[in-house]
């Protein structure tokens, strides 16, 4: 009798381990997401709208959720995605600038990168153009329309796109479409 109980417990344990070990893979691959399901929360609806605005549908909506989550709201936040997004911007500005003028000095290139990465005059303008201040989740004590927070969210969206697509090409394309395809400061709407 003791042996039979042990066998049933073992079989049940193996079943649970098998079941739960496959869940993260299915979720990460986007297999568990029913695209016909309509989002119910205002945040989920805002993420759907944002995807339409930027012209990119995430395979893993969790990446966009994280991109729209500030550190004041959760430990699972957009900091790392924002760093990646910042590098996407810097690399794309460098590439586009050097394609136009290979003799561009390093000083001029750095100036262009700083101008387009500037929180107040460019990055936050791009993020505000998308209405990210209305989407990002922050703590009640944090101002979601702060240029720094909007800029971090914008960069994080680009980082999330790069991770979701597995390369930076799509993020670069979306960056330039939002930034009006020009090297330099964003022009506010």
- Helical run tally: 8
Give me the count of strands: 0
Low-confidence stretches: 8-36, 184-189
- Estimate the helix proportion, in percent: 55-70%
Domain tally: 1
Question: What is the overall silhouette?
Answer: globular
Order of helices and strands: HHHHHHHH
Could you explain the architecture of this structure?
The chain has a single domain, classed as Ribonuclease iii, N-terminal Endonuclease Domain, Chain A, CATH 1.10.1520. The C terminus is likely disordered. It has 189 residues and is mainly alpha-helical. α7 runs antiparallel to α8. It is globular, with a radius of gyration of 21 Å. Helices cover 64% and strands 0% of the residues.
In short:
64% of the residues lie in helices and 0% in strands. With 189 residues, the protein is mainly α.
Jot down its keywords.
189 residues, mainly alpha, Ribonuclease iii, N-terminal Endonuclease Domain, Chain A, 8 helices, globular
Topology:
Layout (H helix, E strand, L loop, with lengths): L1 H27 L13 H13 L6 H7 L11 H22 L5 H12 L1 H11 L17 H19 L3 H10 L11
Helix pairs in contact: 3-7, 4-5, 4-7, 6-7, 7-8
